[in-house]
């Protein structure tokens, strides 16, 4: 058989021109009317109890539409359950955002939505923030810088209060049960 | 006037004057993307590490996320949009031929950085190319094909200095 080699031939990509010239369209290149942007407040601790979340100062900032914590999201979303049938695997169920405990560094604890073209602000808080903050072991304050909106930056922060973990045993996810394997002749 | 009030900023980008109203604290990368509608300059890390926002400032590579737009007044800014308008530059063409990109997010920064670097280093070694590429993070290709592309582009530029 003669002719052009087809199978195994080197093919050049057809989509490269737009990418090498900066004409690709990525999500952040597009402008959607009324589009909101989200920021997540994340845990700096690998395992800790959330004692209170106080969003009042952040909610007063220009451009903030809503702040959603695990408690509100639990009313609208179902928890995810991870329980594959694997011997020794500890089944876990977790809410969309943590409500009372964070389980890894970076676990998001609150979602702030911007900017300001929606109508109402909702005031969310969990527990008794004033009392809990006064008794706090650790208070985490997170501020955001987002240059594309006109924002009152001094006021824009979410305070998260965490206690050190009281029940580390619940962090167990996987218990390996190695067994001796006989590979003899 | 507070520092949050927008002010008139005049930028010369790819030979064209752009007059925009922006806060003094607005980054050059954000002004290029949002006010000049030049979205080929990408923002990956916003702290000078990833190289996706690289532009030329008076001909030298610079991170547009580490500059305020107001600082770039009176300077000559060159973005990825200036490369390959008529025909692909040697680096652009070689990246295509050597499969030096997949998602393409880092590619504009690499093109801008390496075209300027090859101006200064027309006979690079592979080690030199890898060192020069160290300021541009790519999460797709593993760099091997990018290095091959830069070497190929260097050879082409030596053959045809007008390319």
Task: Give structural notes.
The complex is a heterodimer of chains A (185) and B (163). The longest helix of chain A has 7 residues, at 70-76. With 185 residues, chain A is of the alpha+beta class. The N and C termini of chain A lie far apart (50 Å). Chain A is built from 4 helices and 10 strands; from the N terminus they run αββαβαβββββαββ. In chain A, strands 2, 6, 8, 9 and 10 form a 5-stranded antiparallel sheet that branches. Helices cover 12% and strands 26% of the residues of chain A. Chain B is α+β, with helices and mostly antiparallel strands and 163 residues long. Chain B has 5 helices and 5 strands, in the order E-E-H-E-E-E-H-H-H-H. Chain B has helices at 28-35, 90-97, 107-120, 126-132, 144-159, and strands at residues 7-13, 16-22, 54-57, 60-63, 76-78. A 5-stranded mixed sheet of chain B has the order 2-1-5-3-4, with helices on both faces. In chain B, helix 2 (90-97) crosses helix 5. The longest helix of chain B is centred in the last third of the chain and has 16 residues, at 144-159. The radius of gyration of chain B is 16 Å and the shape is globular. In chain B, 47% of the residues are buried. Classes of the chains: A alpha+beta (185), B alpha+beta (163). The A-B interface holds A 12-13, 15-26, 28-29, 147-148, 150 and B 4, 23, 25-27, 30, 33-34, 38-43, 79-81, 83-85, 88, 92, 95-97, 99, 101, 103-105, 107-108, 111.
Helix content of chain B: 25-40%
- The succession of helices and strands of chain A, N to C, reads HEEHEHEEEEEHEE
- Detail the poorly predicted runs of chain B: none
Number of strands of chain B: 5
The general outline of chain B is globular
Gross geometry of chain A: flat
Order of helices and strands of chain B: EEHEEEHHHH
Question: Helical stretch count of chain A?
Answer: 4
Strand content of chain A: 25-35%
Instruction: Tell me the β content of chain B.
Output: 15-25%
Structural class of chain A: alpha+beta
Largest sheet of chain B: 5 strands, mixed
Query: What's the oligomerization state?
Result: heterodimer
Query: Low-confidence runs of chain A (pLDDT<50, min 5 residues)?
Result: 115-126, 143-157, 161-181
Mean pLDDT of chain A: 66
Return Rg of chain B in Å: 16 Å
Rg of chain A (CA only):
24 Å
Q: Which chains have the largest interface? A: A-B, 19 and 33 residues
């Amino acid at each position: 058989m003669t002719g052009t080699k087809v199978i195994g031939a080197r093919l050049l990509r057809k989509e490269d021109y737009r990418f090498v010239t900066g004409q690709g369209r990525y999500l952040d290149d597009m402008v959607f009317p009324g589009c909101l942007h989200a920021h997540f407040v994340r845990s700096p601790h690998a395992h800790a109890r959330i004692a209170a979340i106080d969003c009042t100062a952040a909610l007063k900032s220009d451009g903030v539409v809503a702040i959603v914590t695990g408690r509100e999201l639990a009313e609208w979303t179902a928890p995810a359950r991870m329980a594959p049938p694997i011997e020794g695997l500890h089944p876990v169920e977790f809410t969309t955002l943590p409500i009372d405990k964070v389980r890894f560094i970076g676990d998001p604890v609150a979602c702030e939505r911007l900017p300001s073209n929606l109508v109402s602000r909702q005031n969310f808080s969990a527990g008794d923030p004033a009392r809990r903050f006064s008794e706090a072991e650790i208070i985490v304050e997170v501020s955001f810088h987002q240059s594309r909106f006109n924002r009152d930056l001094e006021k824009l922060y979410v305070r998260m209060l965490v206690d050190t973990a009281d029940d580390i045993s619940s962090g167990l996810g996987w218990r390996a049960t190695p067994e001796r394997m006989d590979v003899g002749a | 006037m507070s520092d949050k009030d927008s002010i008139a900023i005049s930028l010369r980008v790819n030979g064209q004057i752009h007059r925009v109203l922006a806060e003094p604290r607005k980054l050059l990368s954000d002004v290029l993307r949002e006010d000049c509608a030049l979205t080929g300059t990408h923002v990956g890390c916003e702290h000078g590490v990833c190289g996706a926002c690289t532009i030329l400032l008076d001909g030298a590579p610079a991170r547009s996320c580490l500059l305020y737009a107001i600082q770039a007044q009176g300077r000559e800014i060159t973005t990825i949009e200036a490369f390959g308008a008529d025909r692909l530059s040697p680096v652009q063409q070689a990246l295509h031929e050597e499969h030096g990109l997949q998602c393409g997010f880092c590619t504009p920064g690499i093109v801008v950085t390496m075209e300027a670097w090859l101006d200064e280093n027309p006979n690079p070694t592979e080690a030199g190319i890898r060192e020069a590429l160290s300021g541009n993070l790519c999460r797709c290709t593993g760099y091997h094909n990018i290095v091959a592309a830069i070497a190929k582009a260097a050879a082409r530029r030596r053959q045809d200095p007008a390319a």
